[in-house]
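ingest -> validate -> predict -> emit
validate: passed (alphabet ok, no gaps, 455 aa)
predict: started
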Amino acid sequence: MTSIRKRTMTLILGLLLVGLLIMSFFNLHDSNHEIAEVYDAQLAQNARLLQGVMRMPMASKDHSALYQAFNQALSQASPKLDGHPYESKIAFQVWNHQGELLVHTASAPTFTLPPSQTGFSDVVDLKNHQWRTFILDDVQYGLHIWVGERNDVRTDLVDRIVQHTLWPNLLGSLILVTVMWLAIGWGLKPLADLAATLRARHSGSLEPLQIEPLPSELEPMQAALNRMLSQIQEVLGRERRFIADAAHEMRTPLAVLRVHAQNLLEAGTEAEKRESLEYLIVGVDRTSRLVNQLLTMARLEPQSIAPPLQTVDLTATVREGLVQLTPWLLSKGLELTFDVSDVPYITHTDPVAINIALNNLVTNAANFSPEHGLITVRLTKINGHFQLTVEDQGPGINEAERERLFERFYSRGNDQGAGLGLTIVQTIAVRLKGRIHLDNLPDGGLCATLELPVN
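emit:
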């Protein structure tokens, strides 16, 4: 992509050139108009001055002498001596009322008949020179005065004005472009410094940027970068915790599996082999549950991105989850009941998270239930909250251990557990703006209650 400096310069130069062309056009138009006005005024003034000279009172013979003196003086005009190149391009002629040519310059165009149209006009002579003329008709003295000027006099002047204006404009534009290029570079220096600082940082550095002083336009960028670095730190922290937890918790199950495998190799009888195989299968199942719960914890970290919430019917969601768990509970010799009133339980939540929480609560209840025990799941609405409770007939909990039960990898009285079930439920409760609490039942057993807001 084109650099910011080049994009800015391209835009500025384009606007500058367009503006310069527009101003030049109007300047040229105004110059032509003003030059034409000044020269036309001079033509009219010269005609009236000549009229005044020709009106001088004198005898007829004196007039003839004056005309001869005029013609003689005008014929001697020479630009090579002491004249001016423009002299041959400025002319006048005077006729009397009989059409006789009285006075004229040598450079004046030849007319078969004196022009009759008075005022300003444009004519072309036999040499294809265009003249701007002014004709003054003096009826009182019988004079017909013609004053003209070749158009190339005006054109030459306009060309000179354009040249004297264009070159300074071009030179000034080049200087201005250079200054703007340097000025834009100076203005973008904080951005270049920020880029240099980022390039100079170590690839593993995730510390927040603290660049001061910083222009106000770059403060949002620094804040966004710091926010991104913080998010990266959180992601890496979660990964490190997951790896550490997995390494810590997988060490013992893998060692146990190795022992069972070694016992299987050393078994001497079929009964010993079968016993070792059974222990090996139980160990593999426990390791699988541990891996699944570790992955669930990684997905349910409070800092991770939460999935979008949906409008959910809790009754249908819980019932579907229990249908999936029923065959497993029956295989363990346990009975399951679902108690729910006939009212709508509609809320805005994450159905996947609800299923995970329900699965962990029912699994915990099953692990601590006696043989042929009853697990009761209830769904109620109390004080503006939906309450999902799971009751079992197990030994309950020790009040001193209540808070520790939500710690990671703390497993009480269940050798097959990974100590993550209640931790997962608590994480889900926090994410859904609810809470989880455990209470011993009066007749024995434990009641785990997940409260969810009604929204």
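Residues 4-159 form a domain with the Beta-Lactamase fold (CATH 3.30.450).
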